[in-house]
Amino acid sequence: MIDELAEKEKKERKPVEKEPKNEPRSDSRKIEVAHHEPDASVKKVKMKAEGVCAWFGTKQALFDVNIDINEKAVTAIIGPSGCGKSTLIRCFNRMHETVPGSRFAGDIFLEENSIFDPRMDPVAVRRRVGMVFQKPTPFPTLSIYDNVAVGLRLNGTRDKKTLDEVVEKSLRKAALWEEVKDSLQKAGAALSGGQQQRLCIARSLAVELEVLLMDEPCSALDPISTSKVEELIHELRQNYTIIIVTHNMQQAARVSQKTAFMLNGKLIEYDSTEKVFTNPANKLTEDYITGRFG
Ligand SMILES: Nc1ncnc2c1ncn2[C@@H]1O[C@H](COP(=O)(O)OP(=O)(O)OP(=O)(O)O)[C@@H](O)[C@H]1O
Ligand SMILES: [Mg+2]
Predict the structure, then answer these.
(1) CA-nearest residue, atom 28 of ligand 1
(2) What CA–CA distance (Å, rounded) separates 203 from 188?
(3) In which residue ranges of the chain is pLDDT below 50?
(4) Closest CA to 246 of 97, 111, 159, 133
(5) How do residues 72-129 score in pLDDT, each as one tens digit?
(6) Contact 282, 268 (CB under 8 A)
């Protein structure tokens, strides 16, 4: 059944006619090697976008985006409003296709496998490639505990001891446990904005998460909550691959190892964060990071 649905989705997706390749593209000239990162050579590619194009109806939002995302590293995506940052990361966990009238072409790999492979269940892709949004989105009527346990329960886990363990572990990993351990039955909506954002991160961590997509996760938060989430990103990168969209240049520079600059649906520059912020190769990147537009 899942296979049939996946097959149907695959057909509707109208992919670009080409064979998925696992070896690096010989013409991936837009992607420079992050030679400024001392450990770049040992970094494994966790996700790879090849020739990604995306449309909303007739409006094209992404144009031939090619990008390799390093494993257990933070990749920042920057660029002016409307340049396609959210659309790109929503392609990475197959959320773009949930928008009525949307279209997609190209391919995206999670390790060796295309996420659009008919054998890949989109729901399973979204468990492995989770997302947190600008506005924290806990289930408002569910308790803190249930917000974290929801994914496991949907997967069929009923055992209380297992649920208790995973809830505690996820809240600890999200640096929220100490603040909520005595009020796990309180509604998720009763937490502060920053706590709610960490609760949403805990919810993603409770399932088999490998990649965390964060779309402006701090833009609705105060400076203290922001620094807590930034510290958390730093911790999580030991075990997870993170892609963060941010309008805040200082934040991109603080939290990421690689930075991608987008403009008008195109990837303009992608390199080590240090290089992009100190010596960008493209004049457009320089103009953007020095505040000349956007
Ligand atoms: N649901 C939608 N329907 C139609 N057009 C859309 C939709 N979502 C985005 N777009 C368009 O696609 C383009 C890229 O939008 P996207 O949201 O990816 O930009 P962004 O870089 O995330 O911007 P921001 O920084 O403001 O969040 C924009 O021109 C936008 O108007
Ligand atoms: Mg956006």
Answers:
(1) 82
(2) 11
(3) 1-37
(4) 133
(5) 999 999 999 999 999 999 999 999 999 999 999 999 999 999 999 999 999 999 999 9
(6) yes
Q: In whole angstroms, give the CA distance from residue 261 to residue 92.
A: 17
Task: Please name the residue whose Cα sits nearest to atom 20 of ligand 1.
Answer: 82
Amino acid code (one letter) for 56: F
Q: What is the pTM of this model?
A: 0.84
Per-position b or e across 206-241, b if 16+ CB within 10 A of its CB: bbebbbbbbbbbbebbeeebbebbbebbeebbeebb
Triad 159, 153, 143: Cα angle to 5°: 100
> To test ligand 1's pocket by mutation, which of 60, 65, 87, 97 has the most ligand atoms within 8 angstroms of CB?
87
What is the C-alpha separation between 117 and 245, in angstroms, rounded? 26
Q: How many of the other CB atoms lie within 10 Å of CB of 285?
A: 25
Quote the tokens at residue 247.
């309008």
- Angstrom distances, CA of residue 149 to CA of 108, 167, 189, 240, 280: 29, 6, 16, 20, 44
Domains, the chain, ordered by start? 2-137+204-289 (3.40.50.300)
Give the count of beta carbons closer than 10 Å to the beta carbon of residue 142.
16
Determine the angle formed by the axes of helices 193-205 and 160-173, rounding to 10 degrees.
Answer: 130
Question: How many C-alpha atoms does 196 have within 13 Å on its Cβ side?
Answer: 22
Q: Which residues, listed in sequence order, are joined to residue 113 by a DSSP beta bridge?
A: 110
Does any ligand 1 atom lie closer than 6 A to the CB of residue 83? yes
Its sign, for the CA torsion 31, 33, 37, 42, is positive
Q: Is 122 exposed, middle or buried (0-12, 13-18, 19+ CB in 10 A)?
A: middle
